[in-house]
Amino acid sequence: MKYMYIEIKGISAVNVGSKMMFLAILQELGGRDSVYKFVVDLREIISAFGFYSKAGAYTKASFEYKGFQLGKVFNIIPGRVRRMFGLITEKEIQVVLDASGFAYSDQWGCIPVRKMADYSEKCRKSGKKIVLMPQAFGPFNPGSSDYIKKIINNSDLVFARDKFSLKTLLDIVNDSEKIKQSPDFTILLKGVKPDYFNPEENDICIIPNQRMMDMTLNGNEYLEIMHKSIKYLCEKGLKPFFLIMGGKEDLILADKINQVMDIHIPVINEKNPFYVKGIIENSAGVFGSRFHGLACALYSGVVAIGIGWSQKYKYLFEDVGYPEGLLSLNIPEDELYRVLDTVADPEKRKVKSKQLVLKAVEIKSKAQEMFSRVRETIGNYQ
How far apart are CA 48 and CA 14, in angstroms? Predict the structure, then answer.
């Protein structure tokens, strides 16, 4: 059988949400009989080599020395030998799937979008197909807009994850056939509850995010609202616990929040994405700031309350018909407690959960349609 080698770009070494996207792609496009084989570039995620290799991904034979790309040296090694060691060269890759999540925005500067623009140009010249998987885009200044225009023109299919991102892209390149809107596709990933997790002992999942400290004007406001919310949930007889999805920096943040609490709540630092999703799915509720943690909850019918630092959170909650579930950092205390009661009160939680389940059916269908379109785009490409 002749295989098609597909590079997945934009994945992270530590972010569990990024790994969820990677696994969802493997789940929907891979499989024992699939002609698709997936490749990752480990130069930027070397610490995650074990995870991605165990998941079945090949490694892109690519390395740089003093700014020069020396990956071509692997071309002299017979392909059969290279593949025994899980190595795939640039010229063997036929398709690129970009699963960056949220990298192309002036909030991160122009470097990520400029690098992808340059890479997309090389891909187009070598005959590769490019699909930008559902993600958030923008805002862009005029300089960055030129780069994103080049990326779109060099791509075969582009998916915006929300209406703001869709409008942002269409304002730059008015091509509604190429640019589509589709929801976050981790809704399709099947979670697994780990044996050690007991929902009766840990019922409300608290997911911190260090970005709330360094991407907002006053990180202390975030610490304060987390402290008030956890304290209120405890007073209501609930048993909150921290779930770490952003690696060491989020673990440090959870410890910092615990230090200002009168009580110490447990911390689960689970690195297996299947288990992370399983824990969220089996929680009574979620209060947090990691996008994919909130998405996993809302798409599973688990009532979630979020605090976010970018527009992607706003549209996530709007898409499930629950805009009031997203809090602002300056929310009045009485309003905070009123929203928290959606999670704290069992009857209110039950009503909202039913609404979320119905909405999730629609969102899941759209994600499946997206993968069908991706397969149509790359399916006959040899």
Answer: 7
